[in-house]
Fold:
Amino acid sequence: MTSHAQNADLLWRAQTYVAAAQIHLQDNVLLRRPLGSGDVKARPAGHWGTVPGTAWALSHIALLSGTGGTELVPLLGAGHAGVAQIAAGWLTGHLATARPQFTRDEQGLVNLCRSFPEVAGLGSEVTPALPAGDFLGGRLGGCLPFAQGAALAAGPDRVVMPVLGDGECETPTTAAAWLTAHALPGTPVLPVVHLNGFRMGAPSLLVGLDERALTAYAAGLGWHARIVTVPDDGHEAFHTELAQAVAHTLAGRRTVLFMRCVKGWSGPAAVNGQQVLGTARAHKTPLTRAASDSAQTHALEAWLSSYRPEELFTEAGHPRPGLASALAGTAWPRLEARRHAPATRPTVWQQPGSFADAVATVVRAHARAGDFRVFSPDELASNRLSELAGPAWTTEVLAEEVLGEQLAGFNAAGGRGVLISYEAFAPLLATGIVSLLKQQRMPGAAPRPSFNLLLTSYGWHNTYTHGDPSLTTTLLALEDPAIRVLTPADPARLAAVLDDAFTSTGQLNVIVAGKHPLPAVPADTLRQELDRGVAVWPHLSDIQPPVLTVVVCGDLPAAVTAEALPRIRTELGVAVRVVSVLDLTVLGDPAGWPAGLPAGEADALFGEDAALLVVTLGHPAAIWSLLKARHPRPVEVIGWRETEGPRTQQDIAAAAGMTAEGLLAAAGRLLKARSRCDTW
Structure:
């Protein structure tokens, strides 16, 4: 066995041993004596089946990374692989850096085994606190396009290596991502498909393909397949295949490495007369009663002993010289940004002529600065943004989930950008965005440029099938302080919020703006709206204290409100104030939303006892989730409502009350309710 193969074997055995130990043990973690019932957890928790193959891939990637001047950055696509990632983190010392109690000695391993699966707040799944955790595996299927986006900012000396499960390859996001690689020529991504034959509970579809069919499948998608079987082919063969795959990737040839193995290999072959090895029973631990069943206790001891821990660790639990030397020869690069686009101060842009002028002007300015990209489905022309289609910094493929992950990966590597899509298609992004928000809340998450989403072509000006503002409703319900939902009322405000969003960090900016021409709004309050998210519009407001305050959230609400105000004043005879909300989260409780209005500021803006009529582009439920019951005054919200079938645009607006007549009627109801309140 060569020195490389010996090092790989030591790393693999050590990772696999520590992973199995943390699932099962609470004491005697180095097997100094025969296992007793008190050494074993009564309720072991964790996913075993993915560990052997994941540990094998991580060991070889870490040993090869850095040789020849090329960094290999692994990303784990399966969240269940976290147990192997944590084991590797304990061995390398990265875990102790994140959590000092998990020192690289016997006591540190005892602490880890007892803490698992909580791991002192890091959890049992893939974590951003450790190498290979830049992608959060809760969103199954997104790792390949995430890696593609990260590789766009990788540079010529870095290869991004997503480790994918074969079940993961059945997801539509992964399936589409194989094809979207054609839109990203020269992107250094080398996927390793962990072909262990099973999803969580049944055989995977890929496992049914023999080598010829698997090669043809990859070739049909535009990828060159390399196939290796582990452990049968051995460490040296895998190293050779991996090195050649890296070389091909760097040379611009799209390559995928299929790693065939048996589910749960090196673990128990059978338990209580039932086959485990190579079945779905190996997904989680097959030894669920090792603390109370002596046969399972002995099986667990034999299993753990097979990795020969006495060759790996000293009496004190430190790595022995061979393992220490192998660990010293590894590299674990992360996706920390190498470069950042210049983050200039936001500029209040002069009044652009249209939606297209606003978007194109700001996007091109940031694209010229570098490290900026546009991702969009095949709708740029439809969104009147044809001039953004075609540059090298624009990617157009018809798969929102893929584009969302590519932008997330690009952000993770330090790139800034925007995803431009129809509002109706944006709900497809919900799972990925929620997972991104979770990742950014987790310990060890690195700061990233903001994830920016521009939604246009919303339902008020579209066909029946293209009306769905559900994404913003879902996101606001999360009450995550990183979220901003921005509703600029005209092109000047759109340009300003885009410029601000593109230079921000750590936020999820959702900008909702229509492509259709609407009246411009005076720019005298633009700076206040940008800085505070809300402002009184003097040009539409009476000087005296308001009896009715109309809160406009977006361009169409602004236009309809301006049309309705003369009738409201004439027919109802009351003082009216108009307040523009640029950032919907200002309506939320300041205890949870950074931009939320405190009670005193809200009273000053809206009027202490004025009735509130909120006019919004999206669901009224989104506004109510922000307001809750914090406003004692009468409130009514006009927004998107579903119709029973296709309607004209005028009928859609009328059904929702988004017309001058609808606002007048709502104002009348509010004033009656306010009068009743005054008599109580």
